[in-house]
Design a protein that fits this description.
The protein is α+β, with helices and mostly antiparallel strands. It is built from two helices and six strands, in the order ββββββαα. It has two domains: 83 residues, no CATH class; 40 residues, no CATH class. Helix content is 16%, strand content 30%. α1 packs antiparallel against α2. The two termini are 39 Å apart.
Length: 154
């Protein structure tokens, strides 16, 4: 039975490769009337995604029952279409972590503002500046950050 907390969120990540423009992936849930209800439809733009994309919304009242289920259907799929689904969650609202360390300030751009934000954190011994994860904030973290910053985010 789906928990009684309201609202309950349904979230997941998707990525597609080799999927032609216009093809779709539909996320659905099984409602209390015995019907599959679309939760979200993801439409391919025809370009391979380099990163996973986050999707989230709250479930409406008819999802709260003992027979709750979810499913994903690829519409118009063929053997060359690859849809990837990861980290499916049902529960509280979720904010995914910033998985690009080079975008240190989290604004979606990798630029000199990230270097300044990192150096400010490093200068104050903020634990976020422990880029190499060794427990020490030192020049090795500066080198690790600059290497990642130079590569950027894909």
């Amino acid at each position: 039975m789906l928990g009684a907390d309201f609202p309950t969120f349904f979230s997941f990540f998707t990525q597609h490769k080799g999927v032609e423009a216009g093809k779709q992936l539909v996320a659905e849930y099984y409602n209390d009337s015995g019907a599959w209800v679309p939760f979200e439809t993801i439409t391919s733009d025809g370009n391979d995604q380099a990163r996973f994309e986050f999707h989230q919304n709250y479930l409406i009242f008819d999802a709260y029952h003992n027979g709750f289920q979810i499913r994903f259907r690829a519409l118009g799929a063929d053997a060359t279409d690859d849809w990837y689904i990861d980290d499916i969650r049902i529960g509280d609202e979720f904010t995914p972590p910033n998985d690009c360390i080079a975008d240190f300030n989290g604004d979606g751009n990798v630029n000199t503002q990230d270097v300044l934000a990192f150096l400010n954190a490093w200068n104050t011994s903020d634990s976020a500046a422990d880029i190499n994860g060794d427990g020490d904030i030192n020049t090795q973290d500066v080198l690790a950050f600059l290497n990642l910053w130079n590569v950027g985010c894909s």
